[in-house]
Specification:
Blueprint: H1 3-16, H2 21-28, H3 32-39, H4 47-57, H5 61-64, H6 73-85, H7 89-103
């Protein structure tokens, strides 16, 4: 399991929410040092900690585990849909057409 990749995705999700390590640590009742250790991939979080972090960051577990879990397409699809919905209608249409062209 690539703990560094998982930690990097946790860090990216935290930064996307404009949270510091101290902020996240307070939300999930950990020390900022512990958050740092998880984000750097030094040690894996306990399952309960992992779930608490995912919930605090508003991301699915399979989004954080996408290169580890073989069947994580729902989280990736959900993340893509969320990002696409932020775009103007013309850009959304362009992306959808490109994906259709690639998958036909």
């Amino acid at each position: 399991m690539d703990l560094g990749a998982i930690g990097s995705r946790i860090k990216a999700a935290r930064e996307k929410k404009h949270l510091t390590q101290d902020d996240l640590a307070a939300i999930v009742d950990l020390s900022s040092t512990h958050i740092s250790v998880i984000e750097r991939g030094v040690k894996p979080p306990k399952l309960e900690t992992f779930v608490n972090i995912a919930n605090a960051l508003g991301v699915s577990a399979d989004t954080l585990l996408q290169d580890v879990v073989e069947h994580s397409s729902e989280g990736i699809a959900s993340e893509l849909a969320s990002e696409i919905m932020k775009l103007p209608a013309k850009e959304r249409s362009r992306i959808i057409n490109a994906v259709r062209a690639l998958t036909e």
